[in-house]
């Protein structure tokens, strides 16, 4: 009799344990690897937005282990982190920045990758198209239509010659050059490419170009990020307008920008990550840019360069950097 009761108790315990696990009360903790290109504010803000949205979706740090690695704006380091992440076989990966996304997508082909702060995913070859990546990637883009940027510029001043500071070999930077060149005829402007390969070239190259341009577009590249104070000092001296699509570049001194909010990009990526964790395939989730943009104006640069800002332009400004 005692043996029968013991067996019944044992079977009951086993049944309860099976039921416990099958209902997902206890399950293996999900692990998400985060590869961040650098500690520039736009990348850090995107990460914060992503984590905020994940928590809102029910995937907080209590349910998910987030493993963050910083590439320090170094492609070799990004590649090594990507290789380590690939070996770890995590549940999902979140990349912030184009170079980080490219590094990880080169290493991982069969596990979901969500990205943000990528200007042109197709040009960067991490997606076949925006409606469907055709692979294991999806995410949010930092793309701002160049036509809207030029329309905003027109309200500031009539421009005939636009120089674009870009870094050869950096896909974001080169994509912005191509997008600007496509609009020459429509906006009746001449686009003058100004390649910057090293930080040491900035002063001489920009001083040489100063007499040939009315405005300078500062593209997204590591070299530009690090040399903005020097760029702004030279352009302000010659009364040359600087503009961009990156808010943190305006924060550093660029005169104005039409930009996508990086925290919102992170939140949008978080929504897509949640869909994947609930069973959707990345290739079935469209890649999206934000629909609304901020006009950001650096008032310090306005004063330093004694730029005249028309009232109609000021009406467009949604954020001032004082």
Model description:
With 322 residues, the protein is α/β, with parallel strands linked by helices. It has 2 domains: 30-142 and 261-289, Rossmann fold, CATH 3.40.50; 146-259 and 294-321, Response regulator (Rossmann fold), CATH 3.40.50.2300. 45% of the residues lie in helices and 20% in strands. It has 13 helices and 13 strands. The chain has helices spanning 2-22, 41-56, 75-88, 98-107, 146-156, 171-181, 184-187, 202-209, 222-237, 247-252, 262-277, 299-305, 311-314, and strands at residues 30-36, 64-70, 92-96, 113-118, 137-141, 161-166, 190-195, 215-218, 241-244, 256-259, 288-289, 294-298, 319-321. A 7-stranded mixed β-sheet has the order 7-6-8-9-10-12-13, with helices on both faces. A 6-stranded parallel β-sheet has the order 2-1-3-4-5-11, with helices on both faces. The radius of gyration is 24 Å and the shape is elongated. Residues 16-26 have low confidence and may be disordered.
Biggest sheet record: 7 strands, mixed
For the secondary structure, the number of strands is 13
- CATH superfamily (homologous) name of the largest domain: Response regulator
Q: Based on the coordinates given, report the CATH architecture of the largest domain.
A: 3-Layer(aba) Sandwich
What is the domain tally? 2
Strand content: 15-25%
CATH topology of the largest domain, what is it called? Rossmann fold
């Amino acid at each position: 009799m005692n043996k029968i009761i013991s067996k019944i108790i044992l079977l009951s315990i086993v049944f309860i344990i099976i039921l416990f696990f099958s209902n997902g009360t206890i399950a293996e903790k999900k692990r998400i690897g985060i590869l961040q290109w650098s500690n520039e504010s736009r990348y850090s803000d995107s990460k914060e937005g992503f984590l905020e949205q994940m928590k809102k979706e029910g995937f907080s740090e209590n349910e998910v282990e987030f493993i963050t690695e910083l590439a320090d704006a170094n492609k070799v380091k990004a590649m090594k982190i990507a290789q380590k992440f690939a070996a770890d076989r995590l549940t999902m990966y979140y990349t912030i920045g184009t170079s980080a996304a490219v590094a990880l997508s080169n290493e991982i082909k069969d596990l979901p990758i969500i990205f943000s702060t990528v200007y042109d995913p197709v040009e960067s070859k991490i997606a076949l198209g925006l409606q469907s990546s055709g692979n294991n990637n999806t995410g949010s883009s930092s793309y701002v239509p160049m036509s809207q940027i030029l329309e905003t510029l027109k309200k500031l001043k009539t421009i005939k010659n636009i120089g674009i500071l870009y870094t050869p070999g950096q896909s974001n930077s080169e994509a912005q050059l191509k997008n600007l060149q496509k609009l020459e005829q429509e906006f009746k402007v001449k686009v003058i490419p100004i390649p910057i390969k090293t930080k040491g070239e900035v002063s001489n190259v920009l001083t040489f170009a100063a007499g040939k341009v009315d405005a300078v577009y500062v593209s997204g590249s590591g070299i530009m990020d690090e040399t903005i104070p020097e760029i702004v000092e030279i352009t302000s001296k010659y009364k040359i307008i600087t503009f961009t699509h990156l808010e943190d570049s305006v924060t550093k001194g660029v005169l104005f920008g039409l930009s996508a909010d990086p925290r919102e990009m992170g939140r949008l990526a978080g929504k897509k990550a949640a869909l994947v964790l609930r069973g959707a395939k990345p290739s079935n989730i469209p890649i999206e840019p934000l629909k609304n943009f901020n006009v950001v104006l650096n008032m310090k640069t306005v004063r330093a360069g004694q730029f005249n800002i028309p009232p109609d332009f000021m009406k467009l400004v949604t954020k001032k950097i004082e």
